[in-house]
């Protein structure tokens, strides 16, 4: 194949080819950029001819045509979004793999404004002096949680790490064996504790831990009692855990022992009102006497990824001063999104539906049914390759929140006339935007709890394109 090397076109020839300009226009590239793409592809073609990997059948191969095709593929591959938008048709509102919470429109607007401009992130406007980003939205956090003080770090895993490192290093932390959980994506309470330098003292058994178990483990080395939300699993049957108020009271009896609760999700909205789960709202936990709590920004709260820590002023002050607070700090866009999210909780309760996460969780099944039915009808009229029908089902909340809670929903259950459900689901994942479904009883099911009306067209188009 080496004899073909001399037939490879020169760059200046390719640059004169009309296809050169048309690719530039199509992909909005400069001469220099397109030339670089072409050089790379020629280089690869040359290598493969040398290595005898490319088989050439023609006597006079159309290398130029081949190169322009290769370059076109390469450019569109390069230009596409890596972090891609998807349609979440799983009905799981807090799908960790799909990015958890969607932000509200006002949060998004604030993120854009903050990204576009300079801000007072670490600047006190009245004094013209350096300020701290840890103070920027503290008043809102305090108002929302009822705690004395609060701060924000990168995520809740970071919050747990900071609390343990700053307040319990080389000291003992008592945790119930029933709460030494592992949360999806490698967050293990026991490992985080080990990394932080705190010594874990396990008490009780897997299914039962009593107040006296904690009492007996307390000594002068005890820095903290920690309670962990058993996020992604639910124990049923012969179980016992100690209530927040009892643990808080026990910690109080021992001078200097901190009671810290990792809430995982940390709801500010009372979903119990709608008969959904039994998640305490953060304010209730603070009122029960917790010295410190931490929770995620992008789980039930429905904001950006963040770890929120709230509690006693003196403890928060120590956390803010710790070196790790600098390591784990959040970006200005996170603070902007979080500020708007918190304002939505503190504002008009009627407008709580403007937070997509809250709205989707409490969304009535009847509204979902209407949407699912309209999809079934539209798919039927657009394509004869599918059989689809409305089916009652349940959605999960996800994100390691409210384990075991199933909320009634409606799905469109779809079968393709020749593709298997797995094949269809795989094709839907390659649609633009990708459509992520769940398979149930050998049917591709779309749970409309997590689908916006504005996504309906793209959804139907995605199915039609799969034929
Ligand atoms: C989800 C969760 C975490 C981790 O929170 P991230 O915000 O995802 O870092 C920690 N602890 C508990 C109990 C959780 O449920």
Automatic annotation (TrEMBL):
One of its GO terms (molecular function) is L-seryl-tRNA(Sec) selenium transferase activity. Its cofactor is pyridoxal 5'-phosphate. Its EC number is 2.9.1.1. The keyword Signal does not apply. InterPro entries: PyrdxlP-dep_Trfase (IPR015424), PyrdxlP-dep_Trfase_major (IPR015421), SelA-like (IPR018319), SelA_trans (IPR004534). Pathway: Aminoacyl-tRNA biosynthesis; selenocysteinyl-tRNA(Sec) biosynthesis; selenocysteinyl-tRNA(Sec) from L-seryl-tRNA(Sec) (bacterial route): step 1/1. Coiled coil: none annotated. It catalyses: L-seryl-tRNA(Sec) + selenophosphate + H(+) = L-selenocysteinyl-tRNA(Sec) + phosphate. Keywords: Cytoplasm, Protein biosynthesis, Pyridoxal phosphate, Selenium, Transferase. The modification N6-(pyridoxal phosphate)lysine is found at residue 299. It is found in: Cytoplasm. Signal peptide: none annotated. PANTHER family: L-SERYL-TRNA(SEC) SELENIUM TRANSFERASE. Converts seryl-tRNA(Sec) to selenocysteinyl-tRNA(Sec) required for selenoprotein biosynthesis. Belongs to the SelA family. NCBIfam families: selA. This is L-seryl-tRNA(Sec) selenium transferase. It comes from Planococcus notacanthi. The lineage of its organism: Bacteria, Bacillati, Bacillota, Bacilli, Bacillales.
